[in-house]
């Protein structure tokens, strides 16, 4: 059950329902509901499943258009932020995928209306049926977006829309000297790389709430010699000092790591790797099954400003969530 990497593995799906994403409206969803667009699970196909409207499909599908025009769906991102690319997934839509798509964005504190001014992010792009269609964003990279409108030409079905990017920390909401979870994707943290993610994605480690099952975490394959341990590197939302850490092994009962260490580094340019000049922040600590583990006194230097952390798990296994509570630094 190898978990494959893709071009945006180190970025967060800002539209994810797990972050609070929502499909607000659409022009039509006669065959398959618009809400399916942002389901976290990969799309599936069930050969003999039909509804009273036709073939059941795991995605958003409109009826065949018999007049001039196109179909559209409006999404509210679960975390507003900077977008770097998309996956317009048409998996299992082989004879009923759109021919082209375009995507528009806006920044709005409320629900978009008929008067909302939309900005074009992607012009008409051809897409392949029954495929992952990864598309880089080349404009609007420095802007923060809250909502998107997916347009399909002229009609058809899209299984999933993934919106990859980095959440923007809402500094206006923070109180003076308020600690935050520096490793939260909702604040702008993101996983950069890991030694292995055979069973489940490294992106799960930083999601909100506790994991819902064993698949909702970061799990490596069983180590058979070679590397000393498995590891994951996380870019924190903003530079900060670390004062509390939680390592949660929820649902990992026969496959939790024996122990862990936590390293950190200050590298504002973002060029980090396994061989960076890491400083130990928490020395070896034993872990237990299906539990939250909290650390405060064990933090070696809570005055050092850092930008990245590396969680090392010995020798392998699964961790559901990592929380790194600290004070942001350098915010205006």
General description of the model:
The protein is mainly β. The protein has two domains: 12-167, Galactose-binding domain-like (Jelly Rolls); 173-328, Jelly Rolls. 0% of the residues lie in helices and 41% in strands. It has strands at 12-13, 22-26, 50-51, 54-55, 60-61, 71-89, 100-106, 119-126, 134-136, 145-153, 157-158, 160-167, 180-181, 190-194, 218-219, 230-248, 259-265, 279-286, 292-295, 305-314, 318-319, 321-328. The strands form five sheets. Strands 1, 2, 6, 7, 8, 9, 10 and 12 form an eight-stranded antiparallel β-sheet that branches. A hairpin with a 2-residue loop joins β3 (50-51) and β4. The radius of gyration is 21 Å and the shape is globular. The model has no long low-confidence stretch (mean pLDDT 95).
Give the SSE map.
Blueprint: E1 12-13, E2 22-26, E3 50-51, E4 54-55, E5 60-61, E6 71-89, E7 100-106, E8 119-126, E9 134-136, E10 145-153, E11 157-158, E12 160-167, E13 180-181, E14 190-194, E15 218-219, E16 230-248, E17 259-265, E18 279-286, E19 292-295, E20 305-314, E21 318-319, E22 321-328
Antiparallel strand pairs: 1-12, 2-6, 3-4, 5-11, 6-9, 6-10, 6-12, 7-8, 7-10, 13-22, 14-16, 15-21, 16-19, 16-20, 16-22, 17-18, 17-20
């Amino acid at each position: 059950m190898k978990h494959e990497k893709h071009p945006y593995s180190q970025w967060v799906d800002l539209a994810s329902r797990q972050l609070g994403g929502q499909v607000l409206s659409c022009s039509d969803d006669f065959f398959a509901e618009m809400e399916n667009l942002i389901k976290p699970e990969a799309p599936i196909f069930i050969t003999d499943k039909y509804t009273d409207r036709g073939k059941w499909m795991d995605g958003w599908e409109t009826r065949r258009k018999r007049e001039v025009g196109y179909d559209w769906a409006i999404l509210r991102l679960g975390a507003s932020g900077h977008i770097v690319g998309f996956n317009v997934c048409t998996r299992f839509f082989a004879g009923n995928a759109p021919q082209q798509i375009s995507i528009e964005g806006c920044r709005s504190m409320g629900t978009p209306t008929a008067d909302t001014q939309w900005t074009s992010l992607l012009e008409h792009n051809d897409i392949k049926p029954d495929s992952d269609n990864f598309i880089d964003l080349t404009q609007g990279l420095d802007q923060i977006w809250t909502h998107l409108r997916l347009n399909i030409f002229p009609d058809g079905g899209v299984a999933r829309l993934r919106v990859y990017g980095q959440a923007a920390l809402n500094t206006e909401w923070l109180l003076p000297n308020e600690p935050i979870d520096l490793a939260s994707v909702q604040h702008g943290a993101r996983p950069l790389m890991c030694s292995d993610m055979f069973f489940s994605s490294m992106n799960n480690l930083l999601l909100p709430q506790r994991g819902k099952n064993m698949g909702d975490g970061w799990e490596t394959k069983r180590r058979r010699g070679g590397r000393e341990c498995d590891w994951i590197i996380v870019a924190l939302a903003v530079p900060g000092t670390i004062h509390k850490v939680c390592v949660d092994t929820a649902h990992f009962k026969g496959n939790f790591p024996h122990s862990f260490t936590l390293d950190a580094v200050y590298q504002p340019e973002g060029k980090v790797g396994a061989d960076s000049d890491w400083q130990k922040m928490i020395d070896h600590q034993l872990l237990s099954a299906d539990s939250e583990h909290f650390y405060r006194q064990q933090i070696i230097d809570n005055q050092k400003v850092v930008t990245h952390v590396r969680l090392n798990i010995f020798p392998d296994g699964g961790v559901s969530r990592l929380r790194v509570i600290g004070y942001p630094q350098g915010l205006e």
